[in-house]
Amino acid sequence: MEKRINAVGKQCPMPVILAKKALEESPEGSTVIVTVDNDIAVQNLGKLALQKGYGFLSKELNTNLFEVSMTAGRTEANKLSENPQVQDMEVPAEFSDIVVVLSSDKMGEGDEVLGKMLMKGFVFALTQLEQKPDTVLLFNNGAKLSCEGADTLNDLKTLEAGGSEILTCGTCLNHYGLEEQLAVGEVTNMYMIAETMMQAGKIIKP
């Protein structure tokens, strides 16, 4: 069985997400062929294959045109990781939460347009992960991401619908004059932000 995906022109992380979904829905031994227009996308698909144990083959069809073949199914290493005897030690429940911290409406330093595009991609990617964050904390410029008009709003709503707690700093909303524009989640305070981060099993900050 073979399935083809045209991911030409699609921004990161869409090629990876489309390929991952197709492979998960395909029976073992099936091939998913993804067409992309840049080498970075090829590398990202290769990392997905390595992480999940999929077969992987890529070839350059033309300038800025690549074809990536991935085969569904897991390697022995992946199967071993599913054995309870080789799982990591269990983390105490009170310190097992995954907390995502968004303190800016941009991801990284440098070009502002690129930074906002990367942040949009990051928040969307969170909705596609098998393991969702337990809590998303938004403060400083990051508070703008949960307000009306933000291009991250729908993805944050998707996370909330899936069980993630979305908490935005009230002081930050007041500072930016956005207290009436919060469109997802709840208002929080610095004590709750500090407590949530202190009790987190893992903190993710892009």
TrEMBL record:
Domain UPF0033: from-to ranges: 5-29
Highest taxon in the source lineage: Bacteria
Residues passing through the membrane, by range: none
Matches recorded under SUPFAM superfamilies: DsrEFH-like, SirA-like
Pfam families per the UniProt record, alphabetical: TusA
Coiled coil: none
Family matches, as InterPro entries: DsrEFH-like, Se_metab_YedF, TusA-like, TusA-like_sf
Signal peptide start and end residues: none
This protein's name: UPF0033 domain-containing protein
Protein species of origin: Anaerostipes rhamnosivorans
